[in-house]
Each structure stands twice: as C-alpha cells, then as structure tokens.
Amino acid sequence: MKKYTKEKLKKKWNWKQWIPMLFFMLIGAGCGILIVRFMESSGETGGTFGQKMLTVPGLILAMYFSILLHIIIHEAGHLVFGLLTGYEFTSFRIGSFMWIQEEGKLKLKRFSLAGTGGQCLMTPPDLMGGKIPVVLYNLGGSMMNLIVSFLCFLMYALIGKVTVLSTVFMIMVLVGIGSAVMNGIPMRLGTVDNDGYNAFSLKRDPKAVYAFWFQMKVNGETRKGIRLKDMPEEWFKIPSDEDMKNSMIAVQGVFVTNRLMDQKRFEEADNLMEHLLSIDSGIVGIHRNLMICDRIYLELIGENREEILEQMLTKELKSFMKSMKTFPSVLRTEYALELLANGQPKKAEKIKAKFEKMALKYPYPSDLQSERELMEYARDNDKTM
Q1: Which of 8, 142, 264, 369 is the most buried (most CB within 10 A)?
Q2: Distance between CA 87 and CA 51 in Å, rounded?
Q3: 193 forms bridges with which residues in the sheet?
Q4: Dihedral of alpha carbons 351, 354, 356, 361, sign
C-alpha cells in the first residue's frame, strides 16, 4: 500500500455545512415571531394572558411537528413525481425508519444516513438515447412543499384573524417554504448535495445522467439482494479526473471502489481511493469519510502502521464514525480497529454483536453479507488468535 501523508487527509473548512443550521435558526425565529404575534392578539380574541401562555407550548410543538410533516411531504413529492415520470418504488425513509419493497410487500427496516432527514429511492426507467426524466423526480419534493404551503396559506387567509389554528397554518407555510428553498436552490450542504444541486448537475452534463441512472439502478439491484461484485462489470466505469468534479459522476467512482472492496481486490481499491481522495472532485463528505474508513480497514489488514492509523483517525473522522455508528462498513472498521490495532478481541466481539443486532432491521442483506466476510477476513489476520 502507498504511503499516506497528512496533507492528503486535511480538509478545508466549508462554511456551507452551516447552511442547514442557519435555515433552521431562521425558521425558528420566524415561528417565534408568529407565536409572539399570537400572544399580543390575546386582547383582540378575548382570551386571557394565562390561557395564551398555556397555548404557547402547543404552538412550539406544532413547529416541530410541521418540520417532521414537511419532511414526509417532501419525500412523498419525490415518490409522486417519480411515479408520474416512469420510476418504480424502491424505498421510503423518514429518519431511521425505512419502508422497503420486498417480494411485493412493504417491510419496515432501520437505516440512517447522516445529513438527511429522509429519502425516497426509486428505480429509474431504462435509458432512452442516454436520457431519462430527472428534473421532476429531483425537484418533486420541493414542489410538494410549496404546494402544501400554498394550501396552508389559503386556509390562513380564510380564517382571517390570529387564532391558534391560523398560527399553526402560518407555521406550516414558513417551514414549507424554508424546506423548499433549502432543498430546491442548488447547494452543497455539509456531507450531501441537495436536490436542486443534483438536478442542476444532471442538466449540465449528459454523463451525469448515466451516473444518476447507474447509482439508482445499483440501489434497486442491492434491494433485490444482489451484491456489487455480482452486478454487470460494464456498469462500473471509472470516470476521468475531470468528470469526477461533477458530484453526480463522483458517486460512480465511489461505487467502483465499493465493488473492488466487495471483490476483495484490496490493493486496487486502496490505490483508487487514494487517487480519488487526492484530486479535486465532487465527492461529498459522507462518501469521502466512508472511503477513509475503508482505507483504515485496509491499513489494518495490511501493514497496520500505528502512525498511519493516527493520521487517518482525525477528530473529524471520529465524529463522523460516531454519527454513523450503526452503518455496516463503519462497524466493520471499528471491529477491525479493536481486533488488529488495539488488541481487544472482547471489545471487537461486542461490536460484532452490535452489528448483528443492527442487521435484524437493515434493509440491504447483500451489504451485510459482504461486511461479514470482511470482518471474518480481519479475524483471520489477527495474529493473536
């Protein structure tokens, strides 16, 4: 394996990762103004100040409920507009609760992804002349947020005065518009690209359309229980360095490394990951950090150099691994760390038990099979056993 350098592991501070927090602060401030306005209207509506004070906690809860409701509405928008443009349902996730289609039935699983409140994945139609419909599916969530916000504003206008119900409707309007803007205007938000950015990337570059089709197709095949190593070789094309600057195409490169890991072509996987991490690319934070986790695993089963592991296990990466503590490849790397770096087989077994507990509700059994094999490979490399 090639030599690691600290310079390659450094990452520039990105102010854009704070945009979601700023949006939530603005939404919270707007909702606060609405609640204060409701309080000031107590004289007009005949209610006492005490009655209004008892209502305020309910309005605060309504704000949080509106956020949750608009997440559901947003993902439902992807589903509706996806079905209208020829996509097939694959999965629907809110928080860590995921409904996935298996053998014609909906089954509840558990899956979480840092930086996302929900996700609706669908299998795309076949490519026709290198094209598929992409804009409505990607922007369908924001469009649905705006549609519901408009309907809520109409209800607010019909009520015509400041009441508990009208305030709730306006909170729904504010949260809906905020969600539509945050997801619809092209932005890179922390570890993921938003829907608008994806739609913009697809319209700019025809190669990105194939990459989008590819990753959605792979997800659909994974849902059927097919492993990456068993999918068609011709799907997994390594993009050029120039094409990797497009965030949508960059995912294609990441999937190639994942397939090499599944095939246990470890040296090729490590070389490709080192290259992809060193170039100027559109690889989003979550994929970048997962690739570093994979490289830590490869270092552990290879030369297992303490100084290299320390360089890769940065404070940022440890924080990421904590936020993805139930993700299969993260658990696999933690297992290998305890076993091969720390010499703690008992702790490693506890992590493996945690893995098996997670596996009971995990939606993709083919991923679990691959990760179990990698944990077994790490165990076979443990010289203390």
Answers
A1: 142
A2: 50
A3: 188
A4: negative
> Which residues on neighbouring strands pair with residue 110, listed in sequence order?
97
Q: Is 142 strand, coil or helix?
A: helix
What's the token pair of residue 153? 């504003």
| CA–CA dist 66, 107 (Å, integer) | 26
**Cβ neighbourhood burial of 51 (10 Å; 0-12, 13-18, 19+):** exposed
Using CB atoms within 10 Å of the CB of residue 49, give its burial: 0 to 12 exposed, 13 to 18 middle, 19+ buried. exposed
8 A C-beta contact, residue 254 and residue 261: no
Q: What mean pLDDT is predicted for residues 114-134?
A: 84
- 100/313: higher pLDDT: 313
Instruction: Please count the CA atoms within 13 angstroms of the CA of 319 that sit on its side-chain side.
Output: 5
Does residue 355 contact residue 83 with C-beta atoms inside 8 Å? no
Sequence-distant (≥ 6) Cβ neighbours of residue 212 within 8 angstroms: 124, 132, 134, 198, 202, 248
| Contacts of residue 321, Cβ cutoff 8 Å, sequence gap at least 6 | 289, 293, 330, 333, 334
Query: Among 128, 144, 150, which residue's Cα sits nearest to residue 84?
Result: 144
DSSP letters along 168-231, please?
HHHHHHHHHHHHHHHHHS--EETTEE-HHHHHHHHHH-HHHHHHHHHHHHHHHHHHTT--GGGS
Question: Percentage of the chain surpassing pLDDT 90?
Answer: 50
Q: What does the block give as tokens for 33?
A: 């103004």
Gap between the Cα atoms of 204 and 210, Å rounded: 13
- How many Cα atoms within 13 Å fall on the side-chain side of residue 4? 22
Which span out of 51-55, 98-102, 136-140 was modeled with the highest average pLDDT? 136-140
Q: Are 64 and 193 in contact (CB under 8 A)?
A: no
Residues paired with 93 in a beta bridge: 98, 119
Instruction: Tell me the C-alpha distance between 25 and 13, whole Å.
Output: 21
The residue behind tokens 């470890």 is 266
Separation CA 224–CA 230 (nearest Å)? 12
Of 44 and 380, the structure prediction assigns the larger pLDDT to 380
CA distance 93 to 105: 16
Tell the residue number behind the tokens 């299969």, with chain if given: 328
The whole-angstrom separation of Cα 248 and Cα 201 is 7
Q: Is the distance from CB of 258 to CB of 286 less than 8 angstroms?
A: no
Alpha carbon 334 to its chain's center: 21
